[in-house]
């Protein structure tokens, strides 16, 4: 991990190592950026003074190692972690140490990319309900209707 202390906002940035996804695919270091920030929540002095939280950014839209279909699936799977510019931002502040949060962020990004690499499931083949299923559904509706009809006013 190489550190960049010349960040304009005063935060420490690092140039991470390449991220291996599987035996054939590795995300190069120049497509990733890490930023270390103070975590929120309980923790007293430690949480206020130590930049243990990690923000990992992956420039998915500009990635040269992922195909267009994989990029599209990845951005869809990422949900609100994806920016309008096609970046995926992973915030990790689950652990007390910076190194463990860093590993956690990289692990979560790896899981997202592995999920996007899987081919989409085939579209569902439309089938008609069987005659028995239709009859059971109609019978259940009639029974529910009869039960509700009996809830009316009681006449003297």
TrEMBL record:
Record-level Gene Ontology MF annotations: peptidyl-tRNA hydrolase activity; ribosome binding; translation release factor activity
Region (Disordered): 98-156
Domain Prokaryotic-type class I peptide chain release factors: 25-155
Any GO BP: rescue of stalled ribosome
Amino acid composition bias (Basic and acidic residues), ranges on this chain: 98-117
Signal peptide: none
Pfam families the UniProt entry points to: RF-1 (PF00472)
PANTHER family documented for this protein: PEPTIDYL-TRNA HYDROLASE ARFB
Record's protein name: Ribosome-associated protein
Taxonomic source organism: Fulvimarina manganoxydans
Lineage: Bacteria, Pseudomonadati, Pseudomonadota, Alphaproteobacteria, Hyphomicrobiales
